[in-house]
Structures are given as structure tokens and as C-alpha cells.
């Protein structure tokens, strides 16, 4: 691979190791929910940089617009009005791909090279290899990938892998007017999050914390939340996301073992034939049948 | 075409055609399904014009096969009801596999093993059809939990059915004089007398 920034760590439906001689720094995007004002500039920047123009939809009665992620809307602001400690809180979360260290989509994908995890942690869909089966949707613990109705390919946030590859921050980060979205090495982002969390705690948010769920090995998009103990408040951000046990069962060791078992049945038949011989009609049966016929 | 007027008719042309339609669809389903099952089999998608075509075609072939499998079920289920003799036959299946059929109880049109195969394949087709529809993203989007469950069921039932069909096909190859039943529809009297004595008596009156 020419660009070190695009070194591959994992590739869907590939059973041999990826090139791993070069060490690449892990990156992360940090979204500080407490300083987001819900202006949606990031949504616009995402559309602009990635040349995505979703159909103009309708207002569904809340600020969420578009109402959900689509193949052409890779990030969306979700607005939640919740009561906490007798006060109304307006919690605004920028939803999109979390770029899991252990991505359920990549694990589920049957097409070699349709989903790539770069060594820097970004999980990217390579649509030219995608067959449109939707297994990634089945595998994702965050309900992120969307299959296009037009070309049947899967799409989601790329963390602007093209920008990151040449040392730029993702478009949403670049545009955020309050600095609520930050980008850098995962280490730096965690340090920055620590500062923000200390500040929030000093302001009375005792449960402020970093959302970097370990059930999926940590993520390369992290949130600073005022209530990290209750992520569900933020438009159903999952509390302990993990790849579903059903998906692990479906995509685990059982498959190579089952494949071997199929081979064993086929070979077993061959050797049965060779060692026991065919089950022929005996001479005796032939004689008896002929005798009975002429009776 | 009559090969030998004394041969016994085992299958009508309609029954044979139905069986081949299901058999050919099954082979196409197994090849395309295995391609998604494990990366080792992914090259099988080239038989269908690439991964995307395999993904598009598989479920349609599945629905097509399911339809003809139901027809076949309706033709044959009555003949596959298990009896006490069949259970006895199954108890002694080890001897049969060992190549010694002298002590096997007399069999009607189908032996216990064939009947067990019939019911196991029936269950597989039902499971594959239901779970296949659940995971058919291009057409449906059921709740995610059901899709995940369907994916597991489909993969398990798919492998089990492929293994069963290996056994089914091998049994036909192993037992000489059987495959022609699916080509011409007839078998020799000696074949019937040896393998399905009760059916032989019934059809010939001997
Ligand atoms: C009505 C019947 C069937 C339907 C609707 C159906 C549908 C599907 C669908 C939607 C997929 C996902 C890939 C894709 O989108 O094309 C799939 C995968 C698969 N199918 Fe079927 N199918 C049917 C019957 C069968 C049969 C009879 C077999 C037996 C060989 C089979 C074996 C498989 C296998 C092994 C997979 C891969 C599963 C995995 O990824 O773990 N299918 N099927
Ligand atoms: S839809 Fe595409 S990316 Fe998603 S699992 Fe299928 S082949 Fe992979």
C-alpha cells in the first residue's frame, strides 16, 4: 500500500494476515456532546466533502432532519429531551459510524475486501467489492450501515479516510463552530476528554465520562457524555454494545469446522465405496426374480 | 422408451421431472450459498457471474425450489410415513452400512433410512425457506433480532442439508441399479426383490 495512512489491519472475508510491519498511530474522533449546539454544520460539511445529496425530506415534527441515517446521509444529529434530577435537558448527539476496534460489520461481511479496517482504526466500506447482501447491517451493534436502493451497495461514514490519509481532519471536525468535534491520535483524544470530564464534574455532572465502549474493543469515535452511566438517554445510544452472540455464533469457529465436516462426509462416502464395495444386486436375487417371473 | 417390458415402474415422468427441478435448484443454491458461508468458497460466486449476481439470484432460486419442494412433498409424503418395520430397519442400519443386508427386515417402496432422509430434508427446506426470507435484505427488513437468528438457522440448516444430500446421492450411487429410477423411472425386478421386497411383491403379485 502506497500511503502508510491507509495501511490495512483487517479485511472482510479474508483469512490470511494483513501486512503489519509498519506501525501506524491509532486515530480517533472525539465528540463532546456537552458543547454541541445542534447546528448541523457537520451534517452539511459531510454532504459537501463526500458529494452526497440526499433527497430533501419532510419535517417529522422534531429537529432531527433527516430523521435517520441513509445511504446518502452518513451522520445525523439526534435530539432528545429528557428529565434529569427535575431539570429538562436537551441532549444532542451526532450519530454515525463508531469505527469499532472490533467491527461487527467486518466480521459479518462475506465479500473479500468490501470492508476494510485501516491500521489507524478507521473502518471503511469499499463499495466496488460489496455485493449488497446486508450482512453488515446484521452484524453492526449500532445500526449504522445502510444499503442503497439505487445501487444495492452498503454505505456509512468513512471518517473521511481520504482526508485523514493526507493529514487532514474529517470534514465534520473541520467545520464544527464550537469545537465540539475533535480529531487526533486516540491517546490525545482521551487526554482531551479527561479535561472536559473534569470540567463537567466540577459543574455538577457527577456522572460525566467518556464513551469508548470496551464491548467492541473501544471505538475510534468517542463521546464525552454528561451521563455516561445512562447512554440510552442520548437517543438510545447502547449501554454495553457488543457484537451479538448470535452473530459471533454465525461467524465463529463453527463455520470452518462445518466446512471440514462437509468434506469429511464426501470423503467418507468415497472411502466407504472403496472399502466396502458397491451394494450390487446379488446373483441370487437375479435368479430368484427370474424364476418368479416365469411362474 | 421401454427398456425391458418386465422392468418395474418406480417413478412417473412427472415425479422424475419434479425431482430434477428440485435437485438442480438445490445444487445452484448450495454452490451460491456456500460462497457466502465461508471465504474459502467465495470463488464459487464466479459460477454465477460474480458476488453480486450470486447474492441476487440465490434467494429467487430458493423460492423457486421451495415451490417445487412443496409439490414433491405432496406427491411423496404418504409413502414416507414411518412404520414399525422401518424403525427395526433403522436399528440395524449399522449392518446395512457394513454391506450386509441379509438380516434387514423386508422393506416397502422406501426403507427406514430413505424415510428418515425424506423427513430430515423436509425440515431443512422449511427452515431454510423461513430463515432465508428473514435474511433477504433486498426484499424485507424484519426486526434485527430475527434477522440474526435467521442467519444462524439458515447457515446451520444449509450445511446440514448439504451433508444430507451428499448421503442421499451417495446412497443412490452405492446401491447399483438405483440411479436409473430417476432417468427411466424403472428398476429391474431383481433390484426390487433385493432392496424392497414388500414393494416387489405388491407390484408383481409374486
Ligand atoms: C426459499 C429458500 C431460500 C431463500 C429465500 C434463501 C435466501 C438466502 C439469502 C437471502 C441469503 C443471503 C445471501 C443473499 O442475499 O443472497 C442466503 C444465504 C445462504 N443460503 Fe439460502 N435461501 C434459500 C434456500 C437455501 C437452500 C436450500 C440452501 C441449501 C444449500 C441455502 C444455503 C445458503 C447458505 C449456505 C447461505 C450462506 C449463509 C451464511 O452466510 O452463513 N439456501 N440464503
Ligand atoms: S452489504 Fe456489502 S459491505 Fe455489507 S456485508 Fe454485504 S458485501 Fe459486505
What's the arrangement of secondary structure elements?
The complex is a heterodimer of chains A (295) and B (206).
Chain A: E1 8-11, E2 27-32, H1 41-50, E3 76-84, E4 87-95, H2 104-108, E5 115-118, E6 123-125, H3 135-139, E7 146-147, E8 154-155, H4 161-165, H5 171-175, E9 181-185, H6 186-202, E10 209-211, E11 221-225, H7 245-251, H8 254-276, H9 283-294
Parallel strand pairs in A: 2-11
Antiparallel strand pairs in A: 1-5, 2-9, 3-4, 5-6, 7-8, 10-11
Chain B: E1 8-9, H1 13-37, H2 51-76, H3 84-91, H4 93-97, H5 112-134, H6 144-174, H7 180-183, E2 186-187, H8 189-195, H9 197-204
Antiparallel strand pairs in B: 1-2
The structure holds protoporphyrin IX containing FE and iron/sulfur cluster.
Protoporphyrin IX containing FE binds at residues 26, 29-30, 33-34, 36-37, 55, 58-59, 62-63, 65-66, 128-129, 132-133, 135-136, 154-155, 158, 161-162 of chain B.
Q: Could you provide a short overview of the structure?
A:
With 295 residues, chain A is α+β, with helices and mostly antiparallel strands. Chain A has helices at residues 41-50, 104-108, 135-139, 161-165, 171-175, 186-202, 245-251, 254-276, 283-294, and strands at residues 8-11, 27-32, 76-84, 87-95, 115-118, 123-125, 146-147, 154-155, 181-185, 209-211, 221-225. In chain A, 30% of the residues lie in helices and 18% in strands.
Task: Describe this protein's structure.
The complex is a heterodimer of chains A (about 300) and B (about 210). With about 300 residues, chain A is of the alpha+beta class. In chain A, about 30% of the residues lie in helices and about 20% in strands. Chain A contains nine helices and eleven strands. Chain A has helices at about 40-50, 105-110, 135-140, 160-165, 170-175, 185-200, 245-250, 255-275, 285-295; strands spanning about 10, 25-30, 75-85, 85-95, 115-120, 125, 145, 155, 180-185, 210, 220-225. In chain A, the strands form four sheets. A four-stranded mixed sheet of chain A has the order 9-2-11-10. A three-stranded antiparallel sheet of chain A has the order 1-5-6, with no helix packed on it. In chain A, a hairpin with a 4-residue loop joins β5 and β6. Chain A is elongated. Chain A starts with 7 loop residues before the first strand and ends with a helix. With about 210 residues, chain B is mainly α. Chain B is about 65% helix and about 0% strand. Chain B contains nine helices and two strands. In chain B, α5 (about 110-135) packs antiparallel against α6 (about 145-175) and α8 (about 190-195) crosses α9 (about 195-205). The longest helix of chain B is centred in the last third of the chain and has 31 residues, at about 145-175. The mean pLDDT of chain B is about 95. At the A-B interface, α3, α7, α8 and α9 of A face α1, α2, α6 and α8 of B. Bound molecules: protoporphyrin IX containing FE and iron/sulfur cluster. Protoporphyrin IX containing FE binds near residues 30, 136, 155 and 162 of chain B.
